[in-house]
Every structure is written in structure tokens, then in C-alpha cells.
Amino acid sequence: MAEPRDIVVIGGSAGAIESLSALVSHLPGDLDSAIFVTIHTLPVADGLLPKILTRHGRLRSAVAVDGEPILCGRVYVAPPDLHLLVEPGRVGLNGGPKENGHRPAIDPLFCSAARSYQDGVIGVILSGTLDDGSVGLRVIREHGGTAIVQDPDEAQFPQMPRNAIEIGHPQHVASAADIARLIVTHTEATSSVEQAMPGAREAPGIPSGIACPECHGVLWGATDDASPEFRCRTGHTYAAESLLEAHASHLAASLWAGVRALREQASLAKHMASRAEKRGDQPGAARYSDRARAAGEHAARMETMLLAWTASSATG
After folding, report:
1. 148 and 48, same structural domain?
2. Catalytic entry in 33, 40, 102, 127
3. pLDDT of res. 197
4. CATH number at residue 101
5. CB contact at 8 A, 84 and 99
6. Is the pLDDT score of 201 beyond 50?
7. Catalytic residue among 56, 61, 132, 134
8. Which residue of 105, 117, 195, 273 could cross-link 288, Cys pair, CB 3.0 to 4.6 Å?
9. Cα–Cα–Cα angle for 56, 66, 55, nearest 5°?
10. Mean pLDDT confidence for 236-265
């Protein structure tokens, strides 16, 4: 089986499996392209995704294997906890740092495809939340490729498509069925692809003064539009909205840990008060009781604040 003329890279998260199933159902079995898929799902679902796609379409789908050749008419699905990459003529898998809070993430797939196949790449963003893939879609465009986003009005979760439209500036916004037709049309019109070796990119950027939610190192702000907006020295990368979400999650966990610590302090102080009272140390018992009461009141106030903040974040 021959190498493809086009590389199609597809990313999504919540609601994307339904959109992807509809998309592949409209693709022919003799498609002169290879398709790479990264969907943010639970690990157990990743093994099932190739079966779902094979059942809905005519293309052969399988979990990607590191180093295997890229062939026409194949769908390569990212395995759990590994970034799926496109290298010249071969599939790549990478256990590098999480990007936008995910591994596999969409941006590494899109950026590697753009660097390897230049204008022979079609990037597609489907239903999902947050903004993973938006920067990668922009990189595909900057390398001469085609950027397509599912119509947010059709997507079950429109946030990811809307962010991709705002950041990636796609040439096409379409329904899942129309995306399939665009892929077929583009493939039929494309001449053979000139493969380019991936270029290394080392630009730490400007220190942002913000800590990485993953490793707590300093995040660096990008100095060019082709890079993720924030990256730490370890390699964790974030677009702005993903960073905000990650920080909110870590902040909530830290604050709940504070509530727990206060309640533990109240419990310990009560224990100390009880022991003091048994010894006949009434001043000590009163002092420990006061500490227990204060810690309990602080914990209750903090818990009320956290519950209100969580509720407002969920509705916002």
C-alpha cells in the first residue's frame, strides 16, 4: 500500500467521538490519505475507539504503533498516555510532558504534522472543551495546510471549536458530513507532497511570573504566534484557557486541603482539651477549646466560600 498524498489530523474531546463517527462514515475506503486522531477520552475508551470507527466507516482503524509506516486509507488513533506524532513516512509516539493538561494532546499531533508534511496537511477540530489544538491548527495554516473546524452550532460541546476559530483562523467551518467532503475534495486535488524534516524549535520566550500547574516551574510566554502561549522548562505547554482551567483546578485542591487541615487542627485541639480537663488543667482545657472552636469556624467559612466559588465557576 502506497504512502498518502495528504495527512489528515483530527482532534477533539467531549462529544468528539460522535462527530468523528459521523465524519468517517462519509469517507471512501480508497481514500488517498492517512488519518491521525487524538481525542481526550478515558484510557479505557481509547482501545474501543478504533472498533467504533471501523464499525461506522470503511477505513481501517487501529491504535497507533511507534515507528510503523504511514499508509493510505488508515486511521491511526492515539494510545493512552502517549502523544501521537506525525514524522516523515512514519508514526511517532512520545511520552513527553503533558500539553494543555493532556497526554495525548492535540497540539503535538498538529504541529508535528505541519512540520513534517507542510501544505499536505489537513487539520480538523471537532467537538470539545477548552482550547487544545487551537495553536496547532494555526501552525498548520502557517505551514500552508488546510484548517477545518466543526460548526459550533452542530458540536455537542462548542467551546473547543469556538476557540479554534478564534485562534486558528480556519479556512472552513462545516458540519461533520461536509468536513468529510472537504477532505475528499482536497485529497483528489492535491499533488504529491514534498516531505520536510521536522525543525527543532527552542524559544523559551519571556518569563511570565506564573507557575506551571504540573511541575510548579516558571512558565515562559511565547514570543511568536506559532508557539503555545506558555511553556515551562520541563516542557509542559498551555494555551491561555487551558492554563486558567488547570490553575483553577490546582487552586481548588489546595484550598480544600486547607479546609481539611483546619478541621484536623480542630480535632487535635479538642483531643488536647479533653486530656487537659482529665488532668484537672482547666486553663489549658479552655485554651485548647478556644483553638478548636476557632479552627472549626475558619474551616466552615472557607468551605462555604469554596462551595460558592465552585458553583459560580460551574455556571460561568
Report:
1. yes
2. 40
3. 32
4. 3.40.50.180
5. no
6. no
7. 132
8. 273
9. 10
10. 82
Q: What is the pLDDT of residue 315?
A: 59
Active site residue 61: no
Amino acid 78 reads A
Q: Is residue 64 part of a domain?
A: yes
- HSE-up of residue 244 (Cα within 13 Å, Cβ side): 6
pLDDT greater than 90 at residue 218: no
The pTM for the full model equals: 0.70
CA-CA distance, 241 to 121, in Å (whole number)? 26
Q: Alpha helix (H) ranges present in 169-213? A: 176-189
Q: Judging by DSSP bridges, how do beta strands 218-221 and 6-12 pair with one another?
A: unpaired
Total number of residues shown for the chain: 316
- What one-character DSSP code corresponds to residue 208? E
Cis bond before residue 207 (omega within 30° of 0): no
List Cβ neighbours of 134 (8 Å cut-off, separation of 6 or more).
125, 160, 163, 164, 166, 167, 168, 239
* pLDDT over threshold 80, residue 115: yes
Task: Establish whether 66 is a catalytic residue.
Answer: no
CA atoms within 13 Å, Cβ hemisphere of 232? 21
Q: Could you confirm whether 250 is annotated as catalytic?
A: no
| Catalytic annotation, pick one of 6, 13, 107, 127 | 13
